[in-house]
Amino acid sequence: MQNVPTIMTVAGSDSGGGAGIQADLKTIFALGGYGTSAITALTAQNGAEVSGIFPVSPDFVLQQIEAITRGFPVRAAKTGMLFSAEIIQAVSRAFKNHGFPLVVDPVAVSQSGFRLLEEEAVRALITDLLPICDILTPNIPEAEMFTGRRIEDRDGILAAGEELLEMTGGAILLKGGHLPGSVLVTDYLFQKGNAPKEMAVPRIETNNTHGTGCTLSAAIATGLGKGLPLSTAVSQAQAYLNEALRNSYTPGVGHGPVNHACRMGTKT
User: Fold this and answer.
1) Is 1 among the domain residues?
2) Whole-angstrom Cα distance, residue 33 to residue 31?
3) Is residue 260 part of a domain?
4) Can 209 be counted among the known catalytic residues?
5) How many domains does the chain have?
6) Catalytically annotated residue among 209, 215, 225, 226
7) Which of 91-95, 116-120, 210-214, 256-260 has the lowest average pLDDT?
8) Active site residue 33
9) Are 165 and 192 in contact (CB under 8 A)?
10) Residues 35, 47, 170, 211: which is the catalytic one?
């Protein structure tokens, strides 16, 4: 078992278990990694609401990250909900000279519509974290937040993706799930020096979409931690999320989670 890669997630805790740290660790385990975590905030939430957020101090977020990197051979990391500019700045300092792939999922709003990123934190993401990430995984509303563009079609995605590519130190996976219609969902992978790559998967009609962005980015990080090329890590992460959506369920109110155990014999 010595070849199991250690993957770090830096994100908020979801008391409902479907997103955040909980979703990340389930995903990493299901895909053959060893998950470690630095918690940025505690949330009181379920599939229908976020009723409270208690942020962790930036110094303690940094202390968690440093403890992990001292104690484990981290092969890849991902960030999720970071909440404040101060936490983002602390995380950016910790990863400034990272020697492993860094996936940034710019979590801004919960599935139930609750804001998870303070207004002033957007600028810190752009100036401090995006330049050092290896891949950024925004959905359409998040891409609109960064670029100020309205994205309504494929042309809008292509324009926003190229603009985002100039803001980052790595690649962009701009997720197309918010575009209407079609039996397919097309995500767009932008890499410097390459034409955008369209990566389509079947659209799954379900209300159980809580934690989809967390799951996808954690799956990408796990693939990169195993040494997969970026495009392969993305396509395998898409396939895992698609399967988890097809086998999703509703354990409580509101948006249910995807089924992170779909490859471990737990089907619905």
Assistant:
1) no
2) 6
3) no
4) yes
5) 1
6) 209
7) 116-120
8) no
9) yes
10) 211
What is the DSSP track for 72-96? S-EEEEEE---BSHHHHHHHHHHHT
Which residue among the candidates 214, 222, 225, 226 is catalytic per the annotation?
214
At a CB cut-off of 8 Å and minimum separation 6, what does 167 contact?
126, 130, 131, 146
Write down the pLDDT at residue 29: 97
Q: At what angle do helices 85-95 and 58-71 cross, to 10 degrees?
A: 20
For the entire predicted model, the pTM comes to: 0.95
**Cβ atoms of residues 129 and 79 within 8 Å:** yes
- Beta carbons of 76 and 101 less than 8 angstroms apart: yes
Which of the following is catalytic: 27, 69, 147, 212? 212
Query: Which residues pair with residue 188 across a beta bridge?
Result: 174, 198
Q: Is 211 a catalytic residue?
A: yes
Rg (CA), the chain: 17
Q: Could you tell me the residue range of the domain that residue 101 belongs to?
A: 6-246
**In this predicted model, what pLDDT tens digit does every residue of 51-61 receive, in sequence order?**
999 999 999 99
Which residue in 137, 175, 222, 226 is the catalytic one? 175
Asked if residues 219 and 24 have their Cβ atoms less than 8 Å apart, the reply is: no
User: Catalytic residue at 40?
Assistant: no
Contact 64, 100 (CB under 8 A): no
Which of 12, 161, 213, 256 does the annotation list as catalytic? 213
Q: How would you label 202-212 residue by residue, b for 16+ Cβ within 10 Å and e otherwise?
A: ebbebebbbbb
Q: How confident is the model at residue 23 (pLDDT cuts 50, 70, 90)?
A: very high
pLDDT value at position 169?
A: 83
Domain with residue 213: its CATH number is 3.40.1190.20
Tell whether the model's pLDDT for residue 165 goes beyond 70.
yes
Residue 263, in any domain of the structure: no
**Backbone torsions φ then ψ of 8, nearest 5 degrees:** -105, 135
- 165 CB-contact burial (10 Å; exposed 0-12 / middle 13-18 / buried 19+): middle
- Asked if residue 268 belongs to a domain, the reply is no
